[in-house]
Specification:
Blueprint (H helix, E strand, L loop, with lengths): L2 H10 L5 E6 L12 H13 L2 E6 L2 E2 L8 H18 L4 E4 L2 E3 L4 H6 L11 E5 L6 H13 L3 E4 L11 H11 L2 E5 H4 L5 H12 L5 E3 L12 H12 L1 H9 L2 H6 L3
Parallel strand pairs: 1-2, 2-4, 3-5, 5-6, 6-7, 7-8, 8-9
Bound molecules: fe (ii) ion.
The site of fe (ii) ion has 4 residues, from loops.
Length: 254
């Protein structure tokens, strides 16, 4: 039984067990955790927040910044040791949050940029000022390179503002949509509210993730976000979103 199946069963039994596909929990590699103690604190908080599986997704910018791979591997191993020692019950996987650059599709194909947990799913980030043409073109190239793009915190990109646009990205490039849990715990600006409601009621959202960076400040809030979704869009929607990361874990899971 894979990790995905166990999450699914727990969710079906009504237990709040979550998979976080986007977080910056490994210290010293990006603007996430800064110290080993901060990583430990974030892992304890994740366990308390009901997270049983997480994918560590440090920022990478292919061809622009060199990613400190050695440091990442060393700190990742230390974090895994800590999870075991403390019995936190978290299964951790490696991933990356990829700020799209022209070289990204090629490096993905060459295995030089990490996907989510070794799967075909790649977490792709854009700048909030990127145009629709840039975003759409980038997702097309990632898809054509043989990967399924997961749009990181899609709510941050004003260029993607219509439900038809989201449907188009899904239809043409199989793009999947990730929204940050924290966004759901805050008041959605009036102008974006209808778009948001349409995303959830139209089942256009695929993943809720924490994108947790640091404590305090941008700490984990998965349960709070999922509770807000349950209240606003129904428990079935919250359950569907909690189980959805299975498609990634079943496809990679390492
Ligand atoms: Fe992030």
């Amino acid at each position: 039984m894979g990790a995905g199946a166990s999450v699914h069963q727990a969710v079906k039994k009504g237990k709040s067990v979550y998979t976080d596909i986007h977080c910056h929990v490994i210290w010293g590699v990006d603007d996430g955790a800064e110290t080993e103690e901060e990583t430990r604190q974030m892992l304890r908080a994740a366990a308390e927040d009901g997270i049983s599986t997480l994918i560590a997704t440090p920022h990478v910018t292919p061809g622009v910044y060199r990613f400190p791979e050695d440091v990442f591997q060393e700190h990742y191993a230390a974090a895994e040791d800590y999870i075991r020692q403390e019995g936190l019950g978290i299964t951790m996987h490696q991933g990356a949050e990829i700020l799209y650059t022209d070289i990204t599709p090629r490096l993905l194909q060459e295995g030089k940029v990490r996907t989510l947990a070794g799967s075909r799913y790649a977490l792709i980030e854009f700048s909030p000022t990127d145009s629709w043409d840039h975003i759409s073109g980038a997702l097309q190239k990632v898809f054509r390179a043989g990967f399924i793009p997961v749009i990181a915190h899609m709510e941050r990109y004003p260029a993607v503002k219509g439900l038809d646009q989201v449907r188009e990205l899904k239809r043409k490039y199989q793009a999947l949509v990730q929204i940050n849990a924290r966004t759901l715990t805050r008041k959605i600006p009036l102008l974006r509210r209808r778009f948001f409601d349409g995303l959830f009621t139209g089942e256009l959202v695929d993943f809720i993730a924490t994108d947790t960076h640091a404590m305090p400040g941008r700490e984990t809030c998965m349960r709070e976000g999922m509770t807000a979704i349950g209240k606003k869009y129904g428990e079935e929607t919250a359950r569907r979103l909690a189980a959805r990361p299975e498609i990634i874990l079943d496809n990679g899971g390492r």
